[in-house]
Specification:
The chain is an all-alpha fold. The protein is built from 10 helices and no strands. The longest helix has 42 residues. The model has no long low-confidence stretch (mean pLDDT 84).
Length: 223
C-alpha cells in the first residue's frame, strides 16, 4: 500500500510541481474559452447557410460538414500547424489548436443547430412574417431561441468533449494540463503529476457532465 501511495499520490512530488500543473490548467481553460465560442459561431453560421441558402449552398454546406466531421481533430491540427506554412501561413501553437478545435467542432455544432432549426414548424415563420417582423427578427426572436432550447443537451455534451480535446495541444508542445503533467512526471520520475492532472480534469468536468446528463433526461422526458 505504501508503495502505491509513493508512486501515485506522492505529496512531496506534488508540492514541487503544482505550479506547473496550475499553469497547464490555466492554458487548458483559456484554449476552451476561445475555441468553444469559435466553434459555436462557426456551427451557427453553417446551420443558417443550410437552412436559408439555396440548393447549391445546401449541398456545399453538407460537403463541408461531412469533411470537417470526417477528419480526426489530431489530423486537422497536424494539417494546420505543419501544413499551412507551405502555403505561407504560419500559426503559433495556441492559434493552431484553437483553429483545429474550431474547425472540427464547427461540423458537429453546425449539424446540431441545423437539426434544431429544422424542428421548428414552418408555420411559425409565416405567422411571424404576417405580424410584420423582418426576416432577421424572425430568426433572432422566434426561431433561434426555440432551436437552442431543443438542442441544448447535445450542445452541452459537445462542449464537454471540446474541453477534454484541448489535450491535443501537447502535440504542438503547448503546455496545457496534460503536457504539463507529463513534463512534471519527467522532472520527478513519479507518475503522481499524471494522477493529479486526472483528478483536476475530474473535478473540473464532473459537475458539467452531471448537468449534461440532467439535460439529456429532460429532453427524453419531453419526447
Amino acid at each position: 500500500m505504501q508503495e502505491l501511495i509513493d508512486n501515485f499520490a506522492n505529496l512531496d512530488s506534488l508540492a514541487d510541481i503544482y505550479p506547473l500543473l496550475l499553469q497547464g490548467l490555466w492554458l487548458t481553460l483559456l484554449l476552451a474559452a476561445v475555441a468553444l465560442p469559435t466553434a459555436l459561431a462557426g456551427g451557427l453560421a453553417v446551420a443558417l447557410l443550410y437552412s436559408f441558402g439555396g440548393r447549391v449552398t445546401r449541398r456545399a454546406v453538407i460537403v463541408g460538414i461531412d469533411f470537417l466531421r470526417a477528419f480526426p481533430v489530431l489530423v486537422l491540427l497536424v494539417l494546420v500547424f505543419y501544413g499551412l506554412p507551405f502555403l505561407g501561413i504560419r500559426l503559433g501553437g495556441f492559434a493552431a489548436v484553437v483553429l483545429a478545435l474550431g474547425l472540427n467542432n464547427t461540423g458537429y455544432f453546425g449539424e446540431i443547430f441545423r437539426a434544431g432549426l429544422a424542428s421548428i414548424p414552418h408555420g411559425q415563420t409565416e405567422a411571424a412574417a404576417a405580424l410584420g417582423l423582418s426576416r432577421f427578427q424572425v430568426l433572432v426572436l422566434v426561431l433561434l431561441p426555440q432551436a437552442v432550447r431543443k438542442v441544448i443537451a447535445p450542445l452541452a455534451g459537445n462542449a464537454l468533449e471540446l474541453v477534454k480535446t484541448t489535450s491535443i495541444g501537447a502535440l504542438v508542445a503547448m503546455p496545457e494540463l496534460l503536457r504539463s503533467a507529463r513534463v512534471a512526471q519527467e522532472q520527478t520520475y513519479n507518475p503522481t503529476p499524471l494522477m493529479a492532472a486526472a483528478l483536476i480534469y475530474f473535478v473540473l468536468l464532473w459537475p458539467f457532465s452531471r448537468w449534461v446528463a440532467v439535460l439529456e433526461r429532460r429532453a427524453l422526458a419531453r419526447h
